[in-house]
What does this fold into?
Amino acid sequence: MRKMSKKDSINNLHDLNVKMIGLKVEYKIQEVKLKDDVKTYVSQFTPGNLIRKYATPSAFLKVDDKLNISSKLMSMVLPMLMNSTVFRGSGFLTKTLVGLATSKVGKTLDAEHLSAIFNSIKGLFGGKKKKAKEGEFIDYGIPPDSETF
It folds into this structure.
């Protein structure tokens, strides 16, 4: 709010009416600015904006540095998977140690590590494609002396 200065002093009814109208105009301007700011602030939290902001694959799997969904999931699933497959016939102590170790490993894994591991395993089993070197002749099955129309 503004403080009244010497020039804002009110001496008669006309000055009072002018001052009241000026204050009403200033109030309306502030009201419009406040409504615009509130609309801008609220629009940040609409479902469309939230989806656009957090629905990317990396943002979904790693919402925050402390909340990493894929690593939490891996720290719970990996010990169960290892104990039910590889260490099926092992004793209680071995399963406990495996569970602790794999839960620690699972916490360090996130979506980027998992996709890198998947791509490396896929690269091992996938056939390597031969790329033609520059200047090397590629045989398309068409004799070189054939006529083209």
